[in-house]
Structures are given as structure tokens and as C-alpha cells.
What we know:
Order of helices and strands: HHHHHH
Radius of gyration: 17 Å
Largest sheet: none
Helix content: over 70%
Amino acid sequence: MSNLYKLATDLKISAKLFIVFAISLMYFFINLPLVAHINKTNVVTQDKYPNYNLIELLPYAFITIIIAPLVEEFVFRNIPIYILNRFTKKESVSLMICLIQSFIFALAHKKYADQNLYTFFFLGVLCWYIAVLLGRQYNIIFHALYNMLWLLLIVFVLKFGFT
Length: 163
């Protein structure tokens, strides 16, 4: 892992942003059919969001794309990474903390019926490694992009219909 960490720290900002954008797109498009298959239904349909119009989604968009990534990454990644760096730098402890914070992250998102615990667990693991390898600011960008993709899917469904 130390070679991967050194490679990641040597990357320029534009390369890191490209990597974060590419990972968020790949995870979203890999995740979309998996969620639909596991839930045995389409992921997003108009009947799941019957009372929303596009203007009413603006405050939700602000919370989903800006506030949630900042708060969640602080709580689920920054605090554990700070504790890890403060007390130990062992990779075995890092893996254990990664798995624990990912499980708690998944439980915190259990209320979302469109996705399941596996989706959020793996999202937590992915966020952890982006934070550790690329930096915490890129992790927040990744989280915001991922949330934005889901929100755009909902907007698409509301605007054009999709069943």
C-alpha cells in the first residue's frame, strides 16, 4: 500500500480530479443495475417521488450535494483518520477502522430504500481509500459527485418520466 500511496501523492491536482470523477461515474453506473437487481425493481420511478417538482428539489439538492458530503466525510472519514494518524499508523488498524466506519456509514444510510447496506458499505470503503490515498478534499468531491449523479437521475425521472 505504501507504493500506491506514494504514487497517489505524486499526482497533480487535475489528475486527482479526473480520477475522482472517473471513479464516481464508474461506481454509479456499476451500482445502478446492481441496486435494481437486488431490489427487484427500477431504481427510481415517478411513483417514488410523486409530490416533488424540480423547484422543490433545490433545497434537497443543496443538502445532498454540499452539506451531506461535508458533514458525513468529517464524521465518517476525517475523525477516524485523525485518530488513526494520532495513535497508530499500522495498516492492519487502518483496515479495521475502514471496515468499522464503512459499516456505520452503511447503517446511517439504511433509511434510503433505493439502495441497500452493501452499496453504502462499499461506498464507505471507497471513500476511505480515496481520502487516504488522494486526500480528504478529493473524498468530499467524490461524495458530492456521487450524490449529484443520484439526484440527476431523480430529476430525469421527474422531468421525463421513467418506469
